[in-house]
């Protein structure tokens, strides 16, 4: 885990002159036909996730530098998996239009949206990926 000054220095180094807002969690259609989480024709190369571990200590965080295509593929796969399985009552899951992932927990038969801190472990503090 890097300290806050290191994170801020990297943020300043890679901060674009004209930042753009990127929609990361575009809701895929219920039909499951979405090919990407990203809206529009221009997709980012990477997504930076900052997981604040403790609300009482905001400097304690884990940072993941994940290729955008990996984010899109993995999150859509987890979303489609969850959406394809009915609830215990046999109903369509509520909120099926919103992809959700969790950093911890364990995957189960009905949901593979958990434990992304392990699934993407190789991307933790992977700032070197931004060097091209």
Please tell me about this protein's structure.
The structure is a single chain. It is built from 3 helices and 2 strands; from the N terminus they run αββαα. With 132 residues, the protein is of the alpha+beta class. It has one domain (4-131). A hairpin with an 8-residue loop joins β1 and β2 (61-67). The protein is globular and about 50 Å long.
Properties at a glance:
132 residues, alpha+beta, two-stranded antiparallel sheet, 3 helices, 2 strands, 23% helix
Write a brief caption for the model.
This protein has helices at residues 4-14, 68-83, 116-119, and strands spanning 46-52, 61-67. The chain is of the alpha+beta class and 132 residues long.
Q: Which structural class best describes the helix and strand composition?
A: alpha+beta
**How would you characterize the largest beta sheet?**
2 strands, antiparallel
Number of DSSP helices? 3
How many structural domains?
1
Distance between the first and last residues' Cα = 22 Å
Counting DSSP E segments of at least 2 residues, the number of strands comes to: 2
Topology as H/E string?
HEEHH
Helix content: 10-25%
Low-confidence runs of at least 5 consecutive residues: 19-27
The radius of gyration computed from the alpha-carbon positions, rounded to a whole number of angstroms, is 16 Å
